[in-house]
Structures are given as C-alpha cells and as structure tokens.
Design a protein that fits this description.
16 strands; oxidoreductase activity; metal-binding; FAD; Elongation Factor Tu (Ef-tu), domain 3; globular; single chain
Amino acid sequence: MFKIIANREVGPGIFQLVLNYDQLPQKPEPGQFFNIKVSQSGSDDPLLRRPFSIFDFDAAEKKVEFIYRVVGKGTKILSELEAETELDLLGPLGSPFSLNKNKGNVHLIGGGMGIAPLYYLSKELKSSNQKVYLGAANKAELEFFEEKFKGLGVELHLAAMEEKLEIKGSALVLWLNYLEKNTPDYVYTCGPEKMLVAVERECLKNNIGGELSIEKRMGCGIGVCLSCSCETKAEDQKNKRACVEGPVFGLGEVVLSA
C-alpha cells in the first residue's frame, strides 16, 4: 500500500500528490505511470482506476509524486483525500522514455498537464544541454512547474494562451519560434494530441529523432482490455496498447488523430 504524505493544490484545479511506499517491484522510469484506485471505504464507485504519469520519484525517501488536474468524479474524490490516507496503486506500468545520455541537444516540449511526466524525465536525463518549452492556459497554471524546472538548472521557456509570457500562445508556437535557430538532435514531447501531431510532423520533416507520450482512456492498465489500443504505422503489427507498448512511442510509430 501507499500512504499520502501531501495532497495539495499547486495551481487552479491542479494538485500535487506525494506518496510514501513500502516497496516497489522495480524502479519507476520517466514516462511510466501508476493506476490509482480512487474509490474509498469499501466502495467500488468509481469502478475503474485512474492512470497518472510519474512526476517525480525519490528512492532514498521512498516517495513517488504525481500532478493531476481535477476534471471529473475520480480526480475530485482524489483531491479531497487527506494525509495518512492509504491508496491502492498498480505500477509502475507502461513503456518509459529512453534515457540515452548521448542524444546531444535535447528539447522537451510540454503542453498543459502533459508537462507532468517531463519533469522526472528532465531530472533523469542529467544533461546540461536541455531546452524545455512549456505552455498552458495561463501563468497561474505554470508557476509550480516553472519553479520545479528552474531547480534543475535547465534552459526554460514559457508561454500562455491567455496572457503574454515569453509569447502569448501555445508551447508548440513557442518551440517553433526557436526551432530554426536551435535545431535539436532529439525531442521529447507530451501534451494535447494536436500539439503532438504538429511536433511529430516537424521533426519527421527535418529528420529529428524523438519520442512522444500519449494520453488514452485505460480500463485495466495492463494490456488485457484493449481499450487503449493505438493504430500503428507498421505493416507487421496493426495495433499497440498505450498501457503496455506505450504510453511512450517513437515519432512516427503510431497514428495520431487531431
């Protein structure tokens, strides 16, 4: 079991969930996720677990952290849970980002809650040659992430849709503004599917390697129910499961819709 250390609001409707654990089957890797049972006190409502990507992990302190937005019944229940509450988690699950240290000039592009898995990734890459491009609706949604990424010492660029930060616009537009003068060797990205489509298109056009993390509705989280199947571009394999072969895929590996 896992026990809540903290469950606090760090932005408008955005919460940081910090958990202590006794033991894990393996070390969680950036890009993986946990399936959290949010129903409490013997209730089965809601029945399905909720998948949350790993925001941070500390093996020495036996802590794992998640960032989530309250969007429905499950996350609303989760946001009301207090410290010392025990939670039932499955994980770590899924396929992580690759962490080859020789990727050269690396760009991380995160939009909205897609920013969450990029923090642990940035921390684990341990590369001084990282440039991070983040976008959200407004400055209030970015303040927590800004503080955390600045703590890693990476080059950070911010954009908001409702007000001008570095620009007024999306993480995608922000990144495209820098692309011509600073072409990356490798890209990691997570966020709205329209953003992923555009980043993938630009990278493939310019022969830039990279990976993306997609968000799919998941029933079981372990590859049995097939509710998170993605169509692939490979002729020898029609579908892949976001919860097993993903949620991280190589650019051009699966069909995105936007």
